[in-house]
Specification:
Blueprint: E1 4-5, E2 9-12, H1 23-40, H2 50-62, H3 69-81, E3 89-91, H4 93-97, E4 104-109, E5 112-118, E6 130-133, H5 138-149, H6 154-160, H7 168-173, E7 182-187, E8 193-198, E9 214-219, E10 224-229, H8 235-240, H9 244-247, H10 254-266, E11 271-275, H11 285-296, E12 306-309
Parallel strand pairs: 2-3, 10-11, 11-12
Antiparallel strand pairs: 1-2, 4-5, 6-7, 7-8, 9-10
Length: 320
């Protein structure tokens, strides 16, 4: 299949058409990467041992089910970077750009790290030299980001690492920040320190089409299982009522529940957000069964774990 196209640069091309990889696709691609990159590289194991390479990729594969595409791609890049070869990397710019981005370009010049470009929202920071990033000297922040770069020298680090300051999931994974915001201590025109906070612009939530019966997302970054439940219908309910004529046109609801329970039980701090704001009613048996099951499970039915959203458009059926 391979979604990983091999040259000296490995390209994660699945997003060219906006595709979302399944867990099985990821497992196949990770296996492909594990085998083919060392085979096609003239001296891949100069800096990383085969044992370290295989163990790191096996660990990513073992935990891929509830991670986002971007998180998996970033973790794979950290493993590839251990080879410390500037000519070998994963290419997933499109995937990075379709997630949260801080609209700022950072560049290292003769006397330090600067904000070299930005949008009107952050115009006051443009052209300023950066004294610290979240309390870290710029050199220290870039050293943390080296997990994605695998630089062979300081010049390569200063050239390539500033790019990763634009992507919150990357700099969070590197330990530069605990959230999506960077606190930049800058120099004003008088050479005095001032602090500015930069972050991704607000991304308004877009609901899925109301023509979909239900839609679920595992938001790995926040450990939230988001279930948008638009209508109370399923193949199971149709079959239970003997409506075999229409049952084939409906999706099964049980796989959604299985995935939901697996996520909540795998991550004890995970939360469920059940969105009923677009629910148009139907037959409430599935929803009632889910509510009873969650309510009876002491590990899941805890304060701060279960949330339900309703509004004036929510049909009374799913809230019974």
């Amino acid at each position: 299949m391979q979604k990983l196209l091999l040259t000296l640069v490995f390209s994660l091309s699945a997003w060219a058409a906006g595709a979302q990889l399944t867990t099985q696709q990821w497992l196949a691609d990770i296996a492909f990467l594990k085998k083919e990159l060392p085979a096609r590289h003239p001296n891949f194991f100069q800096r990383i041992s085969p044992e370290m390479w295989n163990a790191a990729l096996d660990s990513i594969a073992a935990h891929a089910e509830f991670k986002s595409d971007l998180r998996i791609a970033l973790e794979l890049q950290t493993v590839v970077a251990r080879a410390v070869d500037a000519r070998t990397r994963l290419e997933f710019v499109q995937l990075l750009q379709t997630n949260k981005v801080i609209p700022i370009a950072f560049g290292w010049y003769a006397d330090g790290l600067y904000v070299s470009a930005t949008v009107q929202k952050f115009e006051p920071v443009l052209g300023r030299r950066i004294r610290s990033i979240n309390g870290l000297p710029p050199e220290t922040a870039l050293e943390k980001l080296d997990i994605f770069v695998g630089s062979e020298n300081h010049a390569g680090l200063k050239r390539d690492a500033p790019l990763w300051l634009r992507f919150p999931m990357a700099f969070r994974l590197a330990g530069v920040s605990k959230n999506d915001t960077l606190a930049l201590q800058l120099e004003n025109p008088a050479g005095e320190p001032v602090t500015a906070y930069v972050y991704p612009p607000d991304m308004r939530w877009q609901p899925v089409s109301i023509e979909e019966l239900y839609k679920y997302l595992w938001m790995e970054e926040y450990k939230i299982f988001f279930l948008q439940y638009n209508i109370c219908l399923s193949r199971e309910m149709a079959e239970a009522r003997g409506d075999m004529e229409n049952s084939g046109q409906l999706p099964y609801f049980q796989p959604v529940i299985d995935t939901l329970l697996s996520a909540l039980r795998t991550y004890p701090d995970a939360r469920l957000f059940l969105d009923l704001r677009f629910n148009r009613g139907g037959l409430p048996e599935d929803g009632i069964a889910l509510a009873k099951m969650l309510g009876a499970d002491r590990e899941l039915n805890k304060p701060g774990r279960l949330f339900v959203a309703v509004n004036g458009y929510t049909d009374p059926a799913p809230t019974l």
